[in-house]
Amino acid sequence: MKETSPTEPEAPAATATGLHPTATGVHAEATGLHADRVSRRADGRLILDGVTFAPEPGSTVGLLGPNGSGKSTLLRLLAGLLAPSTGVVTLDGTALPALPRREVARRLAVVEQQADTQTELTVLDVLRLGRVPHRRAWTPASAHDERAVRAALERAGLTDRADQPWHTLSGGERQRVQIARALAQEPRELLLDEPTNHLDIHHQLDLLALVTALPVTTVVALHDLNLAAMYCDQVLVLHAGRVVAAGAPGDVLTERLIAEVYGVRAAVTREGPEERPHVRFLGTLA
Ligand SMILES: Nc1ncnc2c1ncn2[C@@H]1O[C@H](COP(=O)(O)OP(=O)(O)O)[C@@H](O)[C@H]1O
Ligand SMILES: [Mg+2]
Known about the structure:
Order of helices and strands: HEEEHEEHEHHHEHEHEEHHEE
Structural class: alpha/beta
Number of strands: 12
Distance between the termini: 27 Å
Mean pLDDT: 88
Strand order of the largest sheet: 6-7-8-3-9-10
Number of domains: 1
CATH architecture: 3-Layer(aba) Sandwich
Largest sheet: 6 strands, mixed
Bound molecules: adenosine-5'-diphosphate, magnesium ion
CATH superfamily: P-loop containing nucleotide triphosphate hydrolases
Low-confidence stretches: 1-29
């Protein structure tokens, strides 16, 4: 059982994460993404404070925490869209700034919270954008590019929307198109910021079942603790920019943690053969 108290600021971030047995240093042989003691300062305030995090390759990690706890900032640092103020993010042992942007884009797909695109594009056009990092300049799409696009379209349940203009889609459909664009990219690392936000429950479950079944490392910011408990191999809980707990959902999602991090009284029971935690909310704490 992990210590889940956010009231112990002395705990070094490296031991608080525990997501990867080698998460405390940068290794030449390291595979995948690795954030090593990253901090980010904005407006003189630390919005991310010494986070060490290395998702197990191929696993699905849920990024949890209240509004403003630093989830989006961490995802943007992992994607190389933001630079850490201190610390480093590496991909297979190489610091992100040392890698050509195009190479990063071939490996790593990111869907941000307010993902938008040019309005005149169709669904198919948006998915084809996902293939750009894989193509040499001025070369037409290959048969493989088209196969990847069609497969992503089908996986996201958008085949019958292929020619629909982006601006005519509903919020949930747009979200699915952005996710399909990320899948068309055929990444090894997939970073999703609250991807279930505008989706109905069927599409929420569909999406998480899909990403957990892919042989891809997925880091997904989620608000719904029960979805995280059902689908994530590991969860990382942020609170005021710090990692306060990390590990299997069953170890992390305790009544005590939920009270301390979210200020909410909850009852946690165990469900199903895997005894995944199920959270029932009882009210806010004063
Ligand atoms: N560019 C910025 N300038 C100032 N503050 C920022 C900036 N970006 C984010 N923040 C602040 O950092 C904190 C963490 O933000 P964010 O990573 O978006 O949290 P989350 O995704 O968990 O809701 C918030 O308090 C937010 O207001
Ligand atoms: Mg956010």
